[in-house]
Please model this.
Amino acid sequence: MAFTSDLDQITRAAAGDPAAVRALVNRYSPGVLGLATRMLADRAEAEDVTQETFLRAWKALPGWEPRAKFSTWLHRVALNLCYDRLRKRKESLPGALPDQADTRLAPHEALDQAQRVSAIEGAITALPERQSAALTLCALQGHSQAEAAEILEISVEALESLLARARRTLRAQLLEGRTSA
Amino acid sequence: MTEDRLIELIEAWGADPSAYPEADRAAARALLAAHPQRFADALAEARVLDAALARMPEILPSTTLTDALVASAPKPRRAAGGFGLPKFAPWAPASGFAALAAGLFMGVMVAPAASAASETEEVERVLEHALGFDPAAFAEELG
Model:
């Protein structure tokens, strides 16, 4: 059965229509899981966040009012859950920060594809959390500027600033890796 | 569009002007076309990062996670042993009002008959007569 809109799917999912539920999961779980994985750098925790996000979504569906896009709302919930977990991690290490991982990218030519991907993943995760979220939403997941700004609850100008800082850090590491090859 | 602004756009959004905010896009394209060499270094650096980010694989949920997400969703609403009607049917309040109206109507129709004392006395007289009961003799016996 073809669904024409988010609202149609949401209405059907709220009534327990299995096809609509699966369609929502298939459409949005990769984005939620991807965001959580890149924010938390922990697949198991990211899956927990994804499950918690969808549980909240199911509870919200019966009274859903399309003031915001469902996708925007869902990613914002996921992002806030990630922020909570990152905060708890910091609180669980009072007075001592975890060892800072070496996020410098190794020489470009010396790395195979899997290593390059892993190195960039590590560098993105090591960014300040809001920069990491901004880069993931815009550069990796293709959210529009307006939607990414809404998820992050900031202006498009502030989003641009976060992206510029994130890209500057990553670019410096990429170039450093290349020149030291 | 100033050159500084164009550099800011390249640093934030990358080498492809189609990713820039819509309000800046046309002017950025025009400035890039007018002075390609002036922005060549900034574009080259941005392209390195754009290419690295483009190679990042999408993170996909496992079948186990997908099934768990689906299983946690609301179940279809059906009355137990019923006919698939919602638990709180929208017409339920209307049926209540209909029952109330019917009750009131019946009350109005029945109440006058039940309270008609003259009719009750008439019925008693008919019964006494049929059974051969004499109220005057009965009164004398009581004294």
